[in-house]
Amino acid sequence: MNPLKDDSLRLSVVIPSHSRPDLLELCLKSLQAHAPAETEIIVVDDGSTGEIISRTAALFAGVKILRHPKPLGFCQAANHGIMTATGEVVELLNDDTQVTAHWAESALRQFANPQIGSVAPLVLIGPRSDTPPTIDSAGDEYDLGGFARKRGHRELFDGRHAVVSEVFGASGSSAFYRRELLLRIGGYPSHFGAYFEDVDLSWRICHAGYRTVCEPASVVWHQVGSSHRKRRRLFEQQSRNEERVFWRNVPNLRRSLPRHAAVLMGKSLRRIREGTFWPFAFGRLRALAELPAHFRHRRAIKIAGH
Fold this sequence. Notes:
This protein is α/β, with parallel strands linked by helices. The protein is built from ten helices and twelve strands. The protein has helices at about 20-35, 50-55, 75-85, 105-110, 180-185, 195-205, 230-250, 255-275, 275-290, 290-300, and strands at about 10-15, 40-45, 65-70, 90, 95-100, 115-125, 135, 140-145, 145-150, 165, 175-180, 210-220.
């Protein structure tokens, strides 16, 4: 791949949205204020009631609107936006985020390095205030025992994460990607629906030979958890997808299995205390029932250490 200068890159911002027009309006206002000229903004209305998301997006000039007649889930909504986008770089934004001045330019500069496949902005917990900010994510890390974690999560931003750093992956709340890379490796895994789809994609970016960096000069505010509610079905889906990521992607499974077993034991005890053990257990069992499909995926992308 030939390196691209940052000033030659066009950005497409894709915002899947379902039921929070109030959040979407704030997100679009921030983009209107801070997006570089010629930025393409795409809102994917994932089956909102009464087309409220489409009607809210239509209030903003130049925003492209894609609509699903019924909800298809975050992954399919995101992939629809990625397929429609025309920019060399795509940013996936949650509708409960707000961007800041120069957030895009800072991230785009990192793509001048042809080895960079994705960029994680510094995500701060919103809404924005004058108090010292708290970090939501300074990129993602992954433990080979089978779980992802956000770097700096819930820490006060005191400068410790103020330098560009290589990280495992970028949080799907606001990640920047090379569009052609996304198309080549298949985008978000549609059967995940939502949750841990960004971790699975980060693994495939790694397997394709690309790297991810966190760019702290690119700042995004995130009203964490504002656009969804916790329900039993969602707990089960989260558990299933987390287990899927492990079996689909982790190299040298034999070496990682003892640590994975210990992680599952620890998580089980925690879920028992929280009263969410059964959806946790059913999710894991459903993922294990898919092992043949996971191994086909591994062979397709040639992961070592079956």
